[in-house]
Write a structure and sequence with these properties.
Blueprint (H helix, E strand, L loop, with lengths): L14 E2 L1 E7 L2 E7 L2 E5 L4 E7 L3 H9 L1 E6 L5 H9 L13 E2 L8 E2 L4 E12 L3 E13 L4 E2 L2 E2 L1 H4 L3 E3 L2 E3 L19
Antiparallel strand pairs: 1-13, 2-3, 2-6, 4-5, 5-10, 6-9, 7-8, 9-10, 11-12, 13-14
Length: about 190
């Protein structure tokens, strides 16, 4: 293999593009983020890293709640728009239809096939970004995007982000926790 060094950077080959929802000064606000992932299984937690200057961060600090909304590729224009403009300069509360779940202060985007409602568990100062870890209070999912009662990525068509480009999910390659059983020692 012919490898070269690229220097330190926060590189992951693909990341989900999600909408982070937070009420700021009593109004729903959404921003696009690709730095989101699972943080813990039990209790269920997710996390997202936001630049400290982001308007949405003010809402998370204010209410101690937020949402991660998994947008579908059919809403890529609206999703990208929410990352291009700041809620401090433009009211983004009407870009998506908001509804509220158990927490009453974490706006959820109705057009998104999956919404993750979170109570702030902890925040970590990571330098330029603040890492918000949220305990999952509830998952809201469109019935049409479920298979056997679980979200189905093939039906959701989540937006995948990689190096300033959005992608759709491709076809399945192998089953996790199963494909490795085919391995033979060298």
């Amino acid at each position: 293999m012919d490898k070269i060094t690229l220097g330190p950077m926060p590189y992951m080959s693909v990341m989900p593009a999600v909408l982070v929802g937070a009420n700021v000064k009593g109004k729903a606000n959404y921003m696009t983020a690709a730095w989101a992932t699972v943080a813990c299984m039990a209790p269920p937690m997710v996390c997202v890293a936001l630049n400290k200057a982001r308007y949405t961060a003010k809402g998370i600090e204010e209410n101690k709640t937020f949402s991660l909304n998994v947008a579908s590729v059919k809403h890529v224009v609206e999703t990208d728009h929410c990352g291009l403009v700041s809620g401090a300069q433009e009211d983004k509360s009407k870009v998506f239809q908001s509804f509220y779940g158990k927490l009453k202060t974490a706006p959820l985007a109705a057009e998104c096939p999956v919404n993750i409602e979170c109570r702030l568990f902890k925040e970590v100062d990571c330098g330029s970004h603040q890492l918000y870890i949220g305990e999952v209070v509830e998952i809201h999912a469109d019935k049409a995007c479920l298979t056997d009662g679980k979200p189905d990525v093939a039906k959701i068509h989540p937006i995948v982000y990689s190096q300033a480009t959005y992608f759709d999910i491709g076809k399945p390659v192998e089953k996790a926790f199963s494909a490795g059983k085919k391995y033979t020692k060298k």
